[in-house]
Records
---
Amino acid sequence: MAISDHVDFPAFIEGVKRRNPGQSEFVQAVQEVAEDIFDFIQDKEQYHHYQILRRIAEPDRVVSFRVCWEDDKGNIRVQRGWRVQNNNSIGPYKGGIRFHPSVTESVLKFLAFEQTFKNALTGLPMGGGKGGANFNPKGKSDHEVMRFCQSFMTELYRHVGADVDVPAGDIGVGGREIGYMFGQYKRITNQFTGVLTGKGLEYGGSLIRTEATGYGAVYFLMNMLKEKGQDLVGKAVVISGSGNVATHAAEKVVQLGGRVMTLSDSQGFIHDPDGIDQEKIDWVKTHKTRRRGRIAEYVETFTGATFHEGKTPWGVPCDVALPCATQNELLGEDARTLVANGCMAVAEGANMPTNLEGVHVFKDAKILFAPGKAANAGGVAVSGLEMSQNSGRISWKEAELQQLLLDIMEGIHSRCLEYGRRGDYVDYVKGANIAGFKKVADAMLAYGVV
Ligand code: NDP
Ligand code: 2IT
């Protein structure tokens, strides 16, 4: 084969910026992956010749659509919805749906890009996708949320399917929203298929899907600690967020002997020096999901705690940090503070919560740092198991699923070691990027130029 002219890393990133104007989150995600992939493919001509990275960083398609709905006062409201189908080389597109006012095409493109590598890392046959809308479920009645979800699915149903693209939950989309969307899909198509995951147990959902992301992130952390001959017992753990991922991560930390010091939401964080135990976590779950309350109200019930308005929790001294809220919530300065305070491990429950500068701070300090595409893959992994159960029209037992989740997280950790070990330091970012890339890239090579 002729040796093609290799585009170098700066030229590649310039090209990504030029082709995706104003899409800073997408460019950031591509840059973080490309830093490692350029190293890896340096002497691998096929990946260059077939422009594999360039092709993975160009979504297969981006569907954008209008979502009209009627609020309780009879006002007609208009939102924008999207589905980004990034890559289906190793399986149907798979990835969550996010409802949040901050959702843009750039945010969903970064999430779909990340999902492609994450899903490959799980070892299950799933491609990468993501969707959502700039809809704010906060303060809306159940009926408003239902009407929005139905309208959203009335367009989305044309683009998804059990063997085509299988959405699930993400920020602002939990069991309630999945129920409304599944109901509408079934109504329009008259088919009962596994088109969504994260479903209720009564209609095809899987045991432990709700817990899987948070639990999986802590299992990944345990694998990293074990490499160093350590565990969680007595360790102080700082967590951001107070949604699905944060509360289940907190629960698993407590079960494994750690002390959870903080939780947060978009208005600030709470610090509980007595530790946030299971009873307090249960209170947060009920408060945030059923009562749709704010984390600030925690201090009214648990009076030893303090609320810090408008702040993130990274200044609280800790051994371990688990960012579990949203992208770019942990910046370079926060990373320096964590390292200076003796933090020895960070595992990302959220997607891209640490910005590029922060990632470099953690890498330079050589602390244990697990990127989201590895650490938070437990959620989509159990989604993959839900798809298998739906296809086979069976339900697996909880113990079997718990074991599968443990095994999958251990498998992801091993894949990271394979490509990320540098002497006695493990670069988990590099390991995850290369292992995820290689599987997708080799499938793409098999297909030729498509
Ligand atoms: P939830 O909607 O259940 O909770 C989100 C939490 O993050 C809330 O506490 C929310 O606070 C906070 N948050 C959201 N946006 C912001 C913001 N802009 N600034 C500060 N805080 C914010 O979502 P999940 O727990 O499901 O998702 C959290 C993260 O985990 C996301 O990055 C998601 O992509 C990722 N993830 C989720 C998976 C899943 O299975 N659910 C799987 C893998 C990753 P508030 O209530 O104030 O909005
Ligand atoms: O970011 C993610 O991995 C998710 N929101 C879960 C996706 C899924 O399909 O379960």
---
Amino acid sequence: MNLSKNSEILIIGGGVIGLAIARELRKRGAGRITVLERGAIGSESSYAAAGMLAPQAEADEADDFFHLCDESNKLYPQFAEELLAETGVSIELDRRGTLYLALTDGDVRQIRHRFAWQERAGLNVEHLSANEARKLEPFISPDVREALFFPNDWQVENRKLLAALGKYAEINDIEIVENTEIKSLLIEKNKIVGAETGGEKFAAQTVVLATGAWTSLIKADGLTMPFVKPIRGQITTYRTAKRLFGTVIYSPRGYLVPRRDGRILAGATVEDVGFDKSVTADGVDFLRENAFEIAPSLVNLAPDETWAGLRPRAADGLPILGALSPEIENLFVATAHYRNGILLAPETAKILADAIVGNVESKYLKIFSPRRFQAAKAF
Ligand code: FAD
Ligand code: GLY
């Protein structure tokens, strides 16, 4: 076979997951690493995200998924420090915590349930009265009934994170090939030998699929790709002269993320509309309603910018991590991080790099294995 490029490890997909894995592999001494990207690196879901690191606001019980999120969150302070030292880019890790508001009877029941399971699990969570919540964040709605405070749910500026990972690749000899869409994987005698675009071929000893919402579109003879669906999320932003909020603020219907540069991100829609990244009037209205419900003082502001991204979701809503097939040892998948890919990037990278170059099998590779769907029907 005449293959035009040759890598020890080929990572397909240059979002936060592919770039974070590339970095971990480089730190563990892997040889030639190439990241192939359809468009520009860091321009899809990872760019559209809100950057919340929110295991306690987003998980529903203290299960394996929660523990994966929690472990990844705990890696962030060191991850941020290392990236700053390695690249000079601050990812703006903000550890002021997250407030979760109850505004209706149903919300009160919901946050009390959340408080109960988190207290049972020994997590750091505070149940606040409305007055206590307003002391923390004076601009929240007078309709707030009570709230939870999660001191360990944080945020990062995900676009800076992507910039840092891109810079790391640039200065650490990780080859980035943009505008290159892989259509199929090349298999010979039960081994992946590379990938092709339809014209160009890339040889590799190991291939990692970090292709987010597009994972199911890749072809490989005799192999079924995991089923991953795009779920659109729209976010709108507001700008205020002075920073109105310190913490990230959730209600059960939406969230506000205050950024260092004065923007407030109001998120997010959750829409099953295929590969359509349009911004819609309905989406903007929905986001405005949720934002005003949390903080009525935003009512006089016009939205500044609105964008949409495609979250990668598996049939069960959980990440897909590890070797795709028992017969093929050199093909790995890291996808379907759905609503938590920014949060899960450092732990995913560590687990995958350990498996690929260290031969260390994290328990999460069994729990979130792509093989769990073999007997299951797609949704
Ligand atoms: P992506 O960033 O989409 O990257 C995949 C890359 O693969 C893309 O660049 C794509 O072009 C490339 N690719 C695909 N197919 C091919 C191919 N065949 N050949 C070459 N390249 C290919 N997560 C959080 O943790 N916290 C949040 O606050 C948060 N908020 C969110 C808000 C919104 C509105 C959205 C949409 C998502 C949010 N998420 C959040 C989820 C998070 O963005 C995703 O889970 C994460 O970005 C997934 O990372 P990824 O690298 O797998 O995907
Ligand atoms: N985790 C926030 C979102 O996906 O909208």
